[in-house]
């Protein structure tokens, strides 16, 4: 058994049961139960947090639902640029809900403690900055910026205002990721050298061809406000508004939507500040619907050696027309094992493989090309030097972990955010961490469109 493996098992201690089928951590269960008890505890009047959501699209509604799962949270206002979504918000949350098409109306309200920003990517940074300056805590959907140039300014505003700021890449709050990080730190897979991470999809909705309402016309959409910060203005186009992820002017493509999730998890588990070199290629292979971003993209990202980790490389891929169907994988490969984080961040598995102490002889080897006398001489010497146990590869049972039934990482992410507002506890994904995950993802776009390697300074967060 290797030193790292012993350290790993010692770290887990008696609170963990290891089998070939499952890993059930009593410590993890206890943490979940504590969170459940907190959730069941009725929040007092002074604990109430009043929120508003800016951008009531898919993520806006989902984020709002997750935020309201935290006791003592109340929705008081919403903003959207399509009148139909404001009407839907009143259907869901009550006719007295305040609605507006101007986010500044939200920020001027004295009864709003925190805002969820779930707009198109091009508005994340500006609204976040305006909200923090107005004294609001901010939960910003990922990526926190649309352009690399926005990152340091947004970080500075958070430091100046000292407002609670969390980026919405929810898997980082998952109990499964916490346990995976513990095991990685304990040496469960040896010394890291590479990571393979991918999102595969195979349907129109997964490729952002979202349903467009019959009344999604210029009379019901504030188109001028939507593209107010765009360098190039277009006549009203319902595809650009309701399917904005397909366009560089408002979204960040597959890299900003999905690579950033993968990088967030990678940075959290490895403790990395980010990569040094980035190169990406891609194609518009199938969804040729007017979009100007690729539907298949691959990137090679190099992480240099730091005090947090050895050098390793990451391959990232998104495929919106994959014959494999929907599948998400992150495989962290070490010298003695592989950690596989799949699905929505609610589970992982570890498979170990370690080389024998003896180097091996025979088989696919040059041994058979020598004379029989030389072969015998070499074999006799080999057998004297290594005993049978040294010639055998160690065997390990696979390990899997699954979060408790009913566990929801999005709810946990918002519980973390609300705890920070109430108690001053650190958020799990602050502005610096969020930018260090977003920047390499956006640089994949820069690499793709410029067809060149991008050099990045992950400590100072600047392009070299």
UniProtKB/TrEMBL annotation:
Key words of the record:
Oxidoreductase, Signal
Q: Which residues form the GFO/IDH/MocA-like oxidoreductase domain?
A: 231-338
Sorted alphabetically, which InterPro entries does this protein's record hold?
Answer: Gfo/Idh/MocA-like_OxRdtase_N (IPR000683), Gfo/Idh/MocA_oxidrdct_glycsds (IPR050463), GFO_IDH_MocA-like_dom (IPR055170), NAD(P)-bd_dom_sf (IPR036291)
Q: Which domain of life is it from?
A: Bacteria
* Any Pfam family hit: GFO_IDH_MocA
Q: Which residues form the Gfo/Idh/MocA-like oxidoreductase N-terminal domain?
A: 49-168
Q: MF terms per GO, please?
A: nucleotide binding; oxidoreductase activity
Q: Where is the signal peptide?
A: 1-27
Query: Matching PANTHER family, A to Z?
Result: BCDNA.GH03377
**Protein name per Swiss-Prot or TrEMBL:** Gfo/Idh/MocA family oxidoreductase
The protein's organism comes out as Mucilaginibacter glaciei
